Amino acid sequence: MPDTPRARALGKELRAAREAAGLTMRELGDALGWSEAKVSRLETAKRALKPDAVEAILSVLRVSRQQRD
């Protein structure tokens, strides 16, 4: 679902969560074994956000189950 309103909204929320955690795109990418560019593409909806990728990001950012819902 790249570059749809829903994907852009999710990417925006992921970026906000990353920033709230005090991580840069590079730091998040390093923690996930991804490039900074991949993190950027996910946050800007230039790349499809798959459920497992979202789960991995939220886990690294330590977002609680309540917040995820």
Describe the protein in words.
The chain is mostly helical. The protein has five helices and no strands. It has one domain (5-68): 434 Repressor (Amino-terminal Domain) (Orthogonal Bundle), CATH 1.10.260.40. α2 (25-32) packs across α3 (36-43). The model has no long low-confidence stretch (mean pLDDT 93). This is Helix-turn-helix domain-containing protein.
Task: Show the helix and strand layout.
Elements: H1 5-20, H2 25-32, H3 36-43, H4 51-60, H5 65-68
Domain HTH cro/C1-type: 14-68
InterPro entries: Cro/C1-type_HTH (IPR001387), Lambda_DNA-bd_dom_sf (IPR010982)
Protein name: Helix-turn-helix domain-containing protein
Average pLDDT number: 93
What value does the Rg take, in angstroms?
11 Å
* Range of helix content: 55-70%
CATH superfamily: lambda repressor-like DNA-binding domains
Strand content: under 5%
Q: Are there runs of 5+ residues with pLDDT below 50, and where?
A: none
Write down how many β-strands occur, each being a DSSP E stretch of 2 or more residues. Answer: 0
Fold-level CATH name: 434 Repressor (Amino-terminal Domain)
Shape estimate: globular
Organism: Saccharopolyspora rosea
Protein name: Helix-turn-helix domain-containing protein
Pfam families: HTH_31
